[in-house]
């Protein structure tokens, strides 16, 4: 039995066989539709399975990567070795008092819509953010003047040793598009959001307005990683890119969106390498023209293609 077969057999003893895929193309699970394969793609169904998979990876010294719903991520063309875990099956959302508790794999958009149905206000800003709840905490996601840290009470996480731990929001160092979650190797399992009673029509009106703004301005018709760059102090990334005459510029199948300069879209079966080269070209051009260093918001992981 090979090492690969051995890990597979151990994984399917932890979770159902259909939850473990070998040599899975990650482009099938990413908004960019880019990226190579992973050795094992695992979708656990409960917190206990998450803990056991983490402990297995530690014991067998196998590389381990947590994948959100793939909205703010680029995987290189060589893919990712070892185990890639996706928590998409942990997606329940419930209410307790004026709080909403959402599991990590739930979409933050769906959590926002659930809050609306419960007539709870505070998550309106998230109605157009395409990430998962876990991903939203990971990067303190925000839009239209709101961000996760404004409403987060606490998070249940699995540590890199496979232990469960409840952390208060102020223990996560939530700042502009950052947290200490990656540095500590935490896997977010659920989040508790403190919200306030509100009027359904008022909450819905705000969400409808934000949805219209998003759909009219963002190139949602093409695969993309979402907003590529953080907002530089004193500037808007999209405006700097637009003023650098970069809209429509293309490398292979990757293009700086003609609809919103802050987006890079996959218009013609781009490779991850082409997409990354275009990001680097945008950064170099904007720096040369304006002296502003654009910092990526999107994460890039994985191996180069050999």
TrEMBL record:
Keyword Aminoacyl-tRNA synthetase: no
Pfam families referenced in this protein's UniProt entry, alphabetically: FAD_binding_4 (PF01565), MurB_C (PF02873)
GO BP terms, alphabetized: cell division; cell wall organization; peptidoglycan biosynthetic process; regulation of cell shape
Organism of origin: Oceanobacillus indicireducens
Gene Ontology CC entries for this record: cytosol
Name recorded for this polypeptide: UDP-N-acetylenolpyruvoylglucosamine reductase
InterPro entries reported for this sequence: FAD-bd_PCMH (IPR016166), FAD-bd_PCMH-like_sf (IPR036318), FAD-bd_PCMH_sub1 (IPR016167), FAD-bd_PCMH_sub2 (IPR016169), MurB (IPR003170), MurB_C (IPR011601), MurB_C_sf (IPR036635), Oxid_FAD_bind_N (IPR006094)
Biological role: Cell wall formation.
Main subcellular location: cytoplasm
């Amino acid at each position: 039995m090979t090492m690969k077969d051995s890990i597979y057999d151990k994984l399917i003893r932890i979770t159902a066989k259909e939850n473990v895929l070998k040599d899975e193309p990650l482009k099938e699970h990413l908004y960019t539709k880019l990226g190579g394969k992973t050795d094992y793609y695992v979708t656990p169904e409960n917190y206990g399975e998450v803990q056991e998979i983490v402990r297995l990876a530690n014991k067998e010294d196998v590389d381990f990567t947590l994948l959100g719903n793939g909205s703010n991520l680029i995987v290189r063309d060589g893919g990712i070795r070892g185990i890639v875990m996706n928590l998409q099956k942990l997606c329940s959302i419930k209410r307790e008092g004026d709080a909403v508790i959402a599991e990590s794999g739930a979409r933050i958009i769906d959590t926002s819509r659930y809050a609306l149905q419960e007539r709870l206000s505070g998550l309106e800003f998230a109605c157009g953010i395409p990430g998962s709840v876990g991903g939203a905490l990971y990067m303190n996601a925000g839009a239209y003047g709101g961000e996760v840290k404004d409403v987060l009470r606490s998070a249940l996480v699995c540590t890199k040793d496979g232990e469960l731990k409840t952390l208060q929001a102020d223990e996560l160092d939530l700042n502009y598009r950052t947290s200490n979650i990656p540095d500590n190797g935490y896997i977010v399992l659920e989040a508790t959001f403190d919200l306030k009673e509100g009027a359904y029509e008022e909450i819905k009106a705000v969400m409808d307005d934000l949805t219209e703004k998003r759909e009219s301005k963002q190139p949602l018709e093409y695969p993309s990683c979402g907003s590529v760059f953080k907002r530089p102090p004193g500037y808007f990334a999209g405006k700097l890119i637009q003023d650098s005459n970069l809209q429509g510029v293309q490398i292979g199948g990757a293009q700086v969106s003609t609809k919103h300069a802050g987006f890079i879209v996959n218009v013609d079966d781009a490779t991850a390498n082409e997409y990354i080269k275009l990001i680097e070209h945008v950064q170099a051009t904007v720096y040369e023209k304006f002296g502003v260093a654009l910092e990526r918001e999107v994460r890039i992981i994985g191996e180069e293609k050999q």
